[in-house]
Design a protein that fits this description.
Layout: E1 11-17, H1 24-38, H2 46-49, E2 65-70, E3 75-80, H3 84-92, E4 100-106, H4 113-124, E5 130-135, H5 142-158, E6 168-170, H6 173-177, H7 181-197, E7 210-212, E8 215-219, E9 223-229, E10 234-236, E11 240-244, E12 248-257, E13 260-261, E14 264-266, E15 270-275, E16 288-290, E17 297-307, E18 319-320, E19 326-329, E20 332-339, E21 345-346, E22 351-363, E23 369-374, E24 377-387
Parallel strand pairs: 1-3, 1-4, 4-5, 5-6
Antiparallel strand pairs: 2-3, 7-16, 8-9, 9-15, 10-14, 11-12, 11-16, 12-13, 12-15, 17-22, 17-24, 18-21, 19-20, 19-23, 20-22, 23-24
Helix pairs in contact: 1-7, 3-4
Bound molecules: guanosine-5'-diphosphate (GDP) and magnesium ion (MG).
Pfam family, one: GTP_EFTU_D2
EC number: 3.6.5.3
Binding site for Mg(2+): 25
Length: 388
């Protein structure tokens, strides 16, 4: 029998972000190695984290790799994403639900375009705490690392983070993975910085249960399982839930986190829910599991949207009424038509109020963040003001 999950420490969701090849996956593996050597985790080798995206049935692609570990004071789910597009999708939509992030910057290369875009995304989705891992510190010289550190602090400050006081830790994921004592200590210092700098977020435990569906799986002989991070509330085996998007109401018959059964999942937990009698094809990424009657789907809403300028990866030309980009709302990806009302056009760099008519209904509420995407890149970031 499987060992049940016992909640002894606060749980936080963190993740590595940063430019391709700066060492995110190597560092993730190194963290698990350092903690496994300390006896509070299981080593997850590089190629188990960085495997090609798994294709589940019906083309749902798993684009998040979670590893689990504990420090002395916290239990972490740590997500490492294979490619830049996965960051944009999973972070911006809130699928990654990061309570804090480790920004990995190669001390040899400095800030690169994806470094800057990930900081921007983090700001937009409300990741308030970033710890910097100045990686590959084994390979370059100190003066270069000093320059890169200044550059990173400045980048953070420009995006509204406290760049001057953000922890910046010089590490070598590669050498720590090889067991080098000096660099093992550097990864421990990084974890200490995460433990102390990233606070345990306020969890909305009393709110009705809500989980945006990230992935759907079938367990032979048991039924359909949906996975994702609990956005708010709590859920127990036996609870009634509805799946918005699928139009079904049913009962949760099983609950697990990282393969361990649990009695109750709460806001912030990464979980798998086994649902009674739901056909596999009925549920998809983008659907929302919620306490029955607690949320309402909508097609029309008003939002404030920041149209990204070209220097932040956005458009070079204005958008006007009739524009039809993709809206990434929680884990859903839906086309929508933009109405700018009297203003009629919005230039890159503008923040505007717009009305959006989505191609299908999704659960919406004031305050919810979303991304606007076009041709595979983020062109806007918005917040819902009102729903119709
Ligand atoms: P990712 O794309 O950010 O996940 O980067 P990877 O973890 O795949 O690493 C990219 C390359 O950088 C690989 O060849 C790694 O071996 C190398 N690398 C990663 N961390 C370090 C480090 O701390 N020092 C050195 N010298 N090389 C590293
Ligand atoms: Mg990687």
């Amino acid at each position: 029998p499987k060992t049940a999950y016992v909640r002894t420490k606060p749980h936080l969701n963190i993740g590595t972000m940063g430019h391709v090849d700066h060492g995110k996956t190597t560092l993730t593996a190194a963290i698990t190695k350092v903690l496994a050597d300390r006896g509070t985790g299981t080593f997850v080798p590089f190629d188990r984290i960085d495997r090609a995206p798994e294709e589940a049935a019906r083309g749902i692609t798993i684009t998040l790799t979670h590893v689990e570990y504990e420090t002395d004071t916290r239990h972490y789910a740590h997500v490492d994403m294979p490619g830049h597009a996965d960051y944009v999708k999973n972070m911006v939509t809130g699928a990654a639900q990061l309570d804090g992030a480790i920004l990995v910057v190669s001390a040899l290369d400095g800030i690169m375009p994806q470094t800057a875009e990930h900081v921007l995304l983090a700001r937009q989705v409300g990741v308030d705490h970033i710890v910097v891992a100045l990686n590959k510190a084994d390979a370059g010289d100190e003066e270069l690392a000093d320059l890169v550190e200044l550059e990173v602090r400045d980048l953070l400050t420009r995006h509204g983070y406290p760049g001057d006081t953000t922890p910046v830790v010089r590490v070598s994921g590669l050498k720590a993975l090889e067991g080098d004592p000096r660099w093992t200590a550097s990864v421990e210092a990084l974890l200490d910085a995460v433990d102390t700098y990233v606070p345990v977020p306020e969890r909305y435990l009393d709110a009705p249960f809500l989980l945006p569906v990230e992935n759907v799986l079938t367990i032979t002989g048991r039924g359909t399982v949906v996975t994702g991070a609990v956005e708010r509330g709590t859920v127990r085996v036996g609870d009634r839930i509805e799946v918005l998007g699928a139009g079904v109401e049913t009962v949760v018959t099983g609950l697990e986190t990282f393969g361990k059964p649990m009695a109750e999942a709460q806001a912030g937990d990464n979980v798998a829910l086994l649902l009674r009698g739901v056909p596999r094809d009925a549920v998809r990424r983008g659907h929302v599991v919620a306490a029955p009657g607690s949320v309402t789907p909508h097609r029309r809403f008003t939002a404030r949207v920041y149209v990204l300028p070209a220097r932040e990866g956005g458009r070079t030309t204005p958008v006007s009424t009739g524009y039809r980009p993709q809206f990434y709302i929680r884990t859903a990806d839906v086309v929508g038509r933009v109405d700018l009302g009297e203003k009629a056009v919005a230039r890159p760099g503008d923040t505007v109020t717009m009305t959006v008519e989505l191609g299908r209904e999704v659960p919406l509420e004031p305050g919810l963040g979303f991304a606007v995407r076009e041709g595979g890149r983020t062109v806007g970031a918005g917040t819902v003001i009102a729903v119709e």
